[in-house]
Structures are given as C-alpha cells and as structure tokens.
C-alpha cells in the first residue's frame, strides 16, 4: 500500500464534530484524513444551516463548564481565520417559575456566576416588547449567549484543517471498517489504514458500528426548521434587541421551543420545536409529519403577535438522540483505537470545538480534558442488550 493511503488518524463524517476533530489532530501535526459520504457542502445531515444558538444556559453544570472553554476556542478560530463566527444577542430563557427545567437553568447560571438578568411579568415588556410572557412564567437572560454562523463556521474549520495539511475527501462512503492495531477503512473509492479512527457520522453512526458488532440506542428524528414572517419588517432583528430564546415547557408542549432573530433571513424569524418524528436518514424526505408545526403556530399566536402564524419557509435537518439526551464521547468497548462521537441530540453544534478536542485526545490515547463519565457507552448497557 502506498504511503499516501496511510494516516495517523481517519475521521469519518465531516459535520461540525468530525471537522473540529480533524482540525485538532492536524494542529498536533498528525497526518489526518477526513472522509465524507456526500459532496460538500451538503444539507443531508445535522450540521448545515446558517445559524445556531450558543449559550451557557444549561440544566447541568458540566455543559456550562465545557462552554466556558468553548467560547475561547470559537474566538481562537475566528482570530486564526480572520472570520466572524459569533454575534452576542443574549438568550432569553422562559418557563413556569416553579418548573423543574427552568429552575435548574436559572440555578446553573447563578451558581456558575454567568452574567444574567431576571425578568418578571412586570418588567418583561420593557425589555422584550415583541413577545408576551405567559401568566405564571418567569424569564432569565444569559447575557453572554448569541448566534453562531453555522455554515460559515463549518467551512472555516474545514479550510483551516486543509491549510494545516489535512486531507479531506468528500463523496466517499465508508463500506467497511476492520479493527486492529492498524485500522483498515474501505470506501467506495479506496482503502485507507490508520493508527486510530474517529466515527462522527451523525445519523449514520450505527450503520458504521454494525460491522464492529456494536449498536448504540440512537434514535434519528427529522426536524422541521421553520421561519415565520414579520408583520413589520425588521421588528424582530438584533437591532431591535430581539434575542435568541428558549421556552423550556408550556401549554403547547413539554419540549423546548426555541428561536433566533430575523437577521438570518431578513424579515423571517427562525422558531423551531426541539423534537421531530422518527426517520430513516436515507429516506428523510418521506417523513412528512407536521404536528410540530401545529404546536409552533399555537405558540406564535399566543406569544408573538408580530409574526404571521404560518411558516413562510420550512427547511429540514436531523437530530440523533440518545435516551438521556447526553452525547456519546467514548472508545469502542473492544477497540480502544476506534473512537465514537455520536448522539448529539440537537444541542451539540455549539460544542464543536471542545468535542473536537476531546475526541482528538481519546484518539491519541491521552487523558481527556474533562470528566467524560456522563458520555460513556456503558451507561446504555441495559438498552444495548436489547438491540445487539
């Protein structure tokens, strides 16, 4: 086999997690190959789209702690590439004042001394006149939060990876992975060997893991990404101090509803339901369920009178959910040089830089920078017995 086909590490899947993993490996002078089954850029997975929310507002401390470094890593990439990837807008978190999830987020922000402010029904309209706060609800603002420019971020990190000498090949579907001291990866275009492999294949993770005798309890759902037209153009944009927002639960649903200002598509506000219907990633467009859109229409009629309660644009992406909605960041139980990053459950994009660092560390056999016990495969032992 030619030397060109041998690498220190092969990363499978060029979404945000795989791209940052490859970038971190290349920064450590590791000869790295990044494989992607579709032609780049594409809209078939989970990392496409103009924007994502970035925040420290979480119910768990460990996510908030990870985001502290993550903000610094995003800023570092901005500086390296000379590109703006983030804009601060604040994140408005709303929920019933006695609800569990809302109180957990509020307490996490306070405990970790994250810059924040609390809004009540008495002062809410002074700060956010475009939105109505439901009776019995309270709101906090994560002041440091904002908008990540997702498509730009993905192309930027891939560009930096290639500038560091990394090799990126798209339109190469992996057909087989043979474990060993040196791992052999076969694609529809060639065969490659590496000391370690990182699998960041999103909704296709289990398809790849099958050939190594592993199936994780992952559920793939299709998300309708909805944009709603402003009745007055520009009334819900950043200049009018309209923030990103999350509603933790409410009359419409137990799942989060989230939104971003109208700057992404002028005149259109992105508001989505944080759940979808089960789908096959290779047959995504055959899933036509719109029950989430009905929920959003009800929410907009109640709380956002400045928007037309009929989606003007509906795009699509996929979430790959774990049962507890926490990530998988671990080595294969039987092969320590095969690393898995999966199950990002619709909230992983913002963590891309730190996840890339952690998966890089695992692939090099290093001690991870953070305690990864919450992300280990063994927590699924009971569920995995039923799928193997």
Folded structure, characterized:
With 388 residues, the protein is of the alpha+beta class. The chain is built from nine helices and 20 strands. Strands 5, 6, 7, 13, 14, 15, 16, 17 and 18 form a nine-stranded mixed sheet that branches. Strands 1, 2, 9, 10, 11, 12, 19 and 20 form an eight-stranded mixed sheet that branches. A three-stranded antiparallel sheet has the order 3-8-4. Helix 1 packs across helix 8 (352-363).
Mean pLDDT: 94
Dominant shape: globular
Query: Beta-strand level of the residues, as a percent range?
Result: 25-35%
Please tally the β strands and state the result: 20
What helical percentage do the residues reach? 25-40%
The gyration radius over C-alpha positions equals 21 Å
Order of helices and strands: EHEEHEEHEHEEHEEEEHEEEEEHEEEHH
The major pleated sheet works out as: 9 strands, mixed
Q: How many angstroms separate the termini?
A: 35 Å
| Secondary structural class | alpha+beta
Q: Quaternary arrangement of the chains shown?
A: single chain
Low-confidence stretches: none
Instruction: Output the number of helix runs.
Output: 9
């Amino acid at each position: 086999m030619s030397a060109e086909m041998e690498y220190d590490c092969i990363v499978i899947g060029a979404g945000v997690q795989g791209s940052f993993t490859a970038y971190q490996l290349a920064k450590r002078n590791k000869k790295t190959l990044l494989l992607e089954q579709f032609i780049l850029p594409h809209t078939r997975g989970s990392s496409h789209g103009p924007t994502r929310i970035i925040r420290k507002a979480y119910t768990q401390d460990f996510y908030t702690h990870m985001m502290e470094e993550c903000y610094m890593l995003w800023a570092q990439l901005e500086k390296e590439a000379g590109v703006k990837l983030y804009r601060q807008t604040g994140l408005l978190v709303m929920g019933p004042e006695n609800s569990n999830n809302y109180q957990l987020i509020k307490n996490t922000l306070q405990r970790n001394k994250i810059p924040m402010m609390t809004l009540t029904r008495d002062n809410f309209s002074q700060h956010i006149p475009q939105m109505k706060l439901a009776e019995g609800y309270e709101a906090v603002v994560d002041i440091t939060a904002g908008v990540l420019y997702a498509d730009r971020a993905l192309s930027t990190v891939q560009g930096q990876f290639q500038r560091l000498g990394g090799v990126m090949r798209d339109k190469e579907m992996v057909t087989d992975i043979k474990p060993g001291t040196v791992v052999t990866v076969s694609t529809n275009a060639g065969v490659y060997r590496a000391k370690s492999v990182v699998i960041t294949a999103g909704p296709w993770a289990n398809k790849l893991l099958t050939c190594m005798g592993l199936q994780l309890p992952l559920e793939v759902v299709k998300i309708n990404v909805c944009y709603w037209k402003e009745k007055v153009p520009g009334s819900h944009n950043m200049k009018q101090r309209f923030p990103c927002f999350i509603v933790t639960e409410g009359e419409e649903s137990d799942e989060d509803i989230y939104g971003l200002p109208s700057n992404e598509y002028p005149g259109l506000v992105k508001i989505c339901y944080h759940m979808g219907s089960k789908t096959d990633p290779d047959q995504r467009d055959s899933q036509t369920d719109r029950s989430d859109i009905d929920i959003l229409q009800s929410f907009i009629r109640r709380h956002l009178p400045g928007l037309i309660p009929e989606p003007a644009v509906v795009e699509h992406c996929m979430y790959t959910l774990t049962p507890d909605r926490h990530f998988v960041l671990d080595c294969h139980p039987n092969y320590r040089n095969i690393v898995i990053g999966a199950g990002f459950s619709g909230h992983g994009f913002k963590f891309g830089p730190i996840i890339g660092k952690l998966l890089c560390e695992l692939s090099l056999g290093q001690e991870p920078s953070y305690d990864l016990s919450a992300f280990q495969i063994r927590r699924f032992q009971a569920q995995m017995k039923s799928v193997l």
